Amino acid sequence: MVQAQTPSMSLKEWVMMLALSALWGGSFFFFKVLVTEVPPFTVVLGRVGLAALILNLFLILRRDLMPRDPRLWGAFFIVGLLNNVVPYTLIVFGETHISSGLASILNATTPIFTVIIAHVFTANEKLNWGKVAGVAFGFAGVAVLIGPSGLSSLGGSDLGGEAACLLAALTYGFASIYGRRFKGIAPLKVATGQITASTIVLLPLALLIDRPWTIPTPGVEVWLAFGGISLFSTALAYILYFRILATAGATNLMLVTFLLPVSAMTLGVFALGEVVTWQSLAGMALIGLGLAAIDGRLWRRLSVTTHKGLKVYAKGFPRS
Prior knowledge:
Distance between the termini: 38 Å
């Protein structure tokens, strides 16, 4: 049986992908600023809560009300847990132990997990040799990032932070597959629904665990970080996310995570004074090779170019 191929992306979808990578890349920077003064659940609640307020107000001003179907809202709560509550909390915890740049590189393993999950749970995004090679390269990159010292100190805080970011990437993989069910629903409403549901889940957690009223009054930079991560890295980003997911597929969409470390590492170096190590660059390069293998387009183009070159070369010889 011939298996369906992962759909190719148009120029418009690639432009949206680049925009989404810049918006999400900034979230690692904002998280790093926020975790210095605000507890984890409150950070995540602030991110999704402000974004939910913005998106719901926008829909009200448009007189475009959210659907009331209980089953649909049940799906919003599930995708909210997979796409927001669990991974955001894990990343916030991770960034209390590792740099924002390293967190973003580990987050780039999302497509590695996605293709494995897609193989199990979908009919049209099955594993092939390119994707298997991509998975191998991706996990090799993770091994380089963690390094022998990290593996030898299994109880270390750095390893705990790295593991948290990897678990977040795994959760994103499940979210991307589950999110396919929202085709036919406006991306703005899907984004609003999942972020609103996430806020409802996080509110009691933050109140019970963090007790935010006991937190000292944050500085201006914290409020600016909350505004940036809510408006740009969440509200606007998820509108793009669900629009790309509806047209390009889960595996294509998760390629955006390879672009995130570029913006995240740049902000980390120039705004936070973080240091990018050769180990980080080597790990990112291996993960990048894995994502290129998963995507397959680069290898197909090289194969076609080589095949055409051989045909032209063969024309120079007399035929027997």
